[in-house]
Amino acid sequence: MIVVLEGVDGSGKDTQARLLQERLLVNGHRAQLLAFPRYGETFFSREIARYLNGEFGELMSIHPKLTAVLFAGDRHESRDLISRLNIEMDFVILDRYTPSNQAHHAAKLPLEDWPDFFAWVETLEYETLAVPRPDLVLFLDLDAAHAVKLIGRKPSRVYTARKADIHEVDAGYQQRVYEAYKRLSLNPNWVSIRCLDNGKLRTANEIHEEVWGALENQRNLDCVTKPLGDATREHRTQK
Fold first, then answer.
1. Are 96 and 35 in contact (CB under 8 A)?
2. What is the CA radius of gyration of the chain?
3. Residue 234 located in a structural domain
């Protein structure tokens, strides 16, 4: 089963993906985690790093179809690995996937162009490049205003020496990405996970329990009964 964690930058995808993998392993399931882009592992990830560092131009100056091809290429290079893991493992957990390509690059376009762009990315990745389709997409629903604050707490990352890359630094762009995700979250294999409770950020474990419940609803996890042992984990915000 391929499970994808999605959300705006700073929404806690890395944290939730790792908590999910940990709990699955504790309960005796085979689970592998991959994060996209696969920095340092693929040809296209190196070009993505250059793009996010601003080497190819300003954020809004590059047509979204051109940059979307870079991110799609990173997954295409990983296609055989994902397919193999999907056979060998009970769960393949992906921190970002095709929906990130849809949301982050549609955000550069007028709203009326979003449906066509969403479909174009699906054709590019799932049909032309034959990347496996996910079984379940878990959307960490954290609005851009809160997420931008959390971006500043991120630790250093391998692909940039900047505090924030060209996607993260633009709050207006992050808001459009969030709106694109909200529209995508209406798709039938998506589940939205609340990250706020009355305007206050929920703890990582509170969010994880909702992630876990969504997975239980999607698949009968027979023998999955053990909770996470540490109830005081911080809500880390790595990309």
1. yes
2. 17
3. no
Burial zone of 57 (CB within 10 Å; 0-12 exposed, 13-18 middle, 19+ buried) = exposed
- Residues 13, 23: Cα–Cα separation, whole Å: 15
Considering the domain boundaries, does residue 223 fall inside one? no
Asked whether residue 88 is domain-assigned, the answer is: yes
Q: What are phi and psi of 201, to 5 degrees?
A: -65, 125
Give residue 76's domain range: 2-218
Distance CA 116, CA 93 (A): 28
Least confident of 78-82, 130-134, 232-236: 232-236
pLDDT for residue 121 is more than 50: yes
Please, which residues have CB within 8 angstroms of residue 210's CB and are 6 or more apart in sequence? Answer: 193, 194
Mean pLDDT of the chain: 87
Both structure tokens of 219? 């698949």
* Residue 228, pLDDT above cutoff 70: no
Neighbours of 101 (CB within 10 A): 26
Measured distance CA(11)–CA(191) in Å, rounded: 15
- Domain with 101 in it: what CATH number? 3.40.50.300
3-state secondary structure of 199: coil
Distance of alpha carbon 231 from the chain centroid = 24
* Angle subtended by helix axes 171-184 and 114-122, to nearest 10: 70
Asked whether residue 231 is domain-assigned, the answer is no
Please give the Cα distance from 143 to 120 (Å, whole number).
26
- For the chain, the domain total comes to 1
